[in-house]
Amino acid sequence: MFVYLLLLTGAAPASGSDNQESSDEPEGLIRSVRFSGNDAISNGVLQTVVRTRTNREIFSIPGATLWLGLNRISSRLGEAPRMINTATIAQDVERLRIFYNNNGYLEATIESEVRELRRNRWQVIFRIDEGEPSVMQTVSFSGLPAFEDPRVMERFLARSQLIRENEAVNDTTFVSNRIYSVDLISNERNRILTILHNNGYASASRDSIVVQVKRDRENPQQLDLAFRVQPGKVYYFGDVRINLSAPQSTEGNFESDTLSGPPVTLEPWQMIINVEPDARTRSRLLEQRVLFTPGERFNNQLYLSTVNQFQTLGMLSLRQFSLSEGGGLPDFSDENVPVFFDLETLPRHQIRADFFGMQRIGLGLGAGLQYSNNNIFGSAERFELGLNTSYEFIEGNQENPRSIETFVNYSFPRFAFPFAGFNNDPRFLNPRTRFQLSYGQIRQINFTVDDNVRFSTRFQANHDQTTTSFFDLIELEWFDANITPAFREVLEETTTDPLFLQLILEDYRPQINSLTRYTFRNAATHPIRRDRGFFLETSFELGGNLPRLIEETLFTRPDSLRGTFPSLSGSGRDLSYSQFVKGSLDFRRYYSLGNNSVFAWRGFVGLAYPYGLSRTIPLNRRFFAGGSNDIRGWNPLTLGPGTNDRTVNPINGGDIKLAGFLEFRNTFSRNFLNTNWIFAAFTDFGNVWTGPRNELDEGKFSMNSFWREIAVGSGIGLRLDWEFVVFRIDFAYRVTDLGNEPGTSVLDRRNIHFGIGHSF
Fold first, then answer.
1. Which of 401, 373, 367 is nearest to 387 (CA)?
2. Which of 4, 79, 176, 628 is the most exposed place for a label (fewest CB within 10 A)?
3. Which band of pLDDT confidence, cut at 50, 70 and 90, is reported for residue 442?
């Protein structure tokens, strides 16, 4: 007879014992936890399963329990002593057994042993006999309905982690040949629930899917899986009711708008939209956020996406959404499922003032004032007006760096021309268009920006919960810079090559440029904690084509192009422009090492290439290195290109950038002075270089030598984590110092960086 196992938790009959049977309960600290016999699963993984643990040690040095020492000074510091507990050890034996069972080792046995190393210091050993792993030979599905779209089942099977590609026994049974895993099976059950809910079977639950595991009679390690599905009946969206209240309203005097008939609903269903007059919002805005049609087959994905559409409007809060009027469980006695949304607008007018510290070349202070109207015309349009200013303090400087910027933003929750046709495309969720106009002035040590005017048009949309696209259709910028007299004097004194001096001064000519840029972002990590997951951003931009067209059309014949045209301000200084392409890739990965530690790494690659008459990239579009969020150990903007590393750096940035970052973080004290204290150790490496078309020979990228010009900075840091914001201080040291003369003092090779948020 075949043996059938009903899959519940992956547990099997208990096997394992605790050898610590003495009536005398051991007392004292746990000094060592060991695992033996575990060939398939590493010690690091098993340590996350058990609760029997030692106090943390610095860099795993035996006895270096700094955090335990801090706790002895104050109970609010460090961590409490890890005391031996035989009840916890017995529970760990069961945890390990279940863990092994859930990962395919159904015959695994676990035993524990407690040894006294010295008085009141104990070692715990978990002895493991893993046995042979059980393998799922086949997976079968029965009871799945015939979906209206045959591609639903095709996609489901193609994306299954249980099924070997293109290996089927028959229409319902497929080859697996994978080690038994409760996680994989649970994920498959969830995937079945998802396709049922998204294709009308709204009442399906986990109890609707039974998973049976059959052992092979001759080889008990060979298993066959069977998913038995009872989908229930098909349901349809019923009436939709949307209530929108004004902020903190208690009156409940709504103006009702009832919509029925195509294209909003199918007959005889309705969409009822109730809006309080003080909410000052058009009902059409709310109707457009609903992604499903009342009367059509139920689709849970469209329902949840509609919830997201309301949440991302930015001018209201979602107080409740449900499939029943009272907010309880849906009533599936009728085939039509009603949908209810209870919304409240946020205050329309907001004024925000910000004050902050900063560090670029020196320490500084900044302030900002912003007014916003988040529903200016009743359709979630957002208007913003802001002013930001900053001031840096640098010892010995008469003219310290400072900046001032004012900006105006106007945005609305839909695509404008020429992408309005994609507003209802399900591939583009929460579409938004933003127009921005800004004006700024900047004074730095070596140069001033007298005028910086920028206008941009941006389109953005989500593709799913983690991925977003940004498309800057047109960004126009007028950049009027001047070199400071003091810096010009330094250049003339130290530069003997007239061509070199001329090329440096070219960076500070008045410029006008245009950009078209596409950015793709996949952010699958917490934006503040950054303790697990990943972040990916890649960007491509094309610059300078619009000024080229203006010069060719209005000022110069095509065969006499100079890359300039008369100034728009009438100052007599011609405006230059650059044609270029630029791309970058930024990838970050975060690994959680237990409850207290995180290992993170980041890689960055960037390349910009001028073409046409242009030999250089505009100053503000180049790559730079150094600073608190880049290669620490160097001040902002001072590293590179190549071996060029000096306090007064006449070459500004580069066309190529390669960089890597490694960081280990450990939370050594929680909720001390109402914050979490995090220790960090890091190493950053990389540089920037000029490209092949640049006329400067210094700092040029070469495949034969660039690896010798990689700058390395390393150090330690402290983070104060208040959950909503992280304050950071890093002490960095230049492991390699590319530009200084031999004999540079240790003090000259160190840097202190401050910042808000993790460095990456």
1. 367
2. 4
3. confident
